[in-house]
Amino acid sequence: MRLKQPPRIKVLEALGAIADGRVVRSGDHYLVTSSEGDRQYTVKVDGNNVSSDDNGTKFRNYVGYPIISVLMLEGRIPYDEEIAMALKGLPWRRLNEEMKNYSLVEEKVLKKAEEKGISRQRIEEFVNRVMENVRKLGLNKVT
Q: What is the domain range of residue 30?
């Protein structure tokens, strides 16, 4: 099954996971720990075949942030260290649950990054580039 494009916020969430050191290779797969540290997702990438047990991938059939973070670490899609560091330590799950609207969360996250000296335009251009790269990969969900 071909996975759908992720919500844009998932690119930023993936950067935050990398900055927080929550993405770790373990043999033939990766373990990605949630922002609150209470969940761990298993990600496998084999060419364009991917699997992850995060909710977005598993239940909504889009490329979840754990897969995006792994693809960034493997150098298959763009990664920006400065943007990632500006997103370090954010409580993603709490923000998503409180606001129940990804565009509101994205707005809040962009403001936080701007406070740390990263322009909104730079982040939006980066997200657009990542989204295009993910689209071109045409990732297939495997179980």
A: 9-141
